[in-house]
Amino acid sequence: MSQNSPRTEVDKEEKTLQGWIPTLATDDELREALEQAFGYRGDITLTLKDGTKIEGYLFDRRTAKTLDASTVTLYPKDREEKLTINYTQIARVEFTGKDTAHGKSFETWVKKYTEKKAAGEKNIRLEPEKLD
Q1: Residue 60 has pLDDT above 60, yes or no
Q2: Which domain range does residue 11 map to?
Q3: How many CB atoms lie within 10 A of CB 38?
Q4: pLDDT score at 2
Q5: Are strands 71-76 and 83-86 parallel, antiparallel or unpaired?
């Protein structure tokens, strides 16, 4: 698969949603995709039913019994104000931004530390990655 090909499945080994475009055939699939987007630590792109595309960081969702009463709120990449969108307006969800939390778990840190120590390194320091 090329780097630019959209993913329709989440690789369980990779444990990142980056690049994933979930199927939204049912109300439950839409709800689950937006719940995943809420926990995602990168930007997403929403395509609305009117064709509008909005890229930004989703930081809140309000779920209710009906889609009409459920909303998400995000900070669009190209504006300063928050934007609240009703679930019924959403046609597509894409996990387009870099997953800034990927590979940064404590377990990953311990594994890198252990590898460096086994290689004989002294004064081991693991520096954080620079954010874009």
Answers
A1: yes
A2: 1-100
A3: 16
A4: 42
A5: antiparallel
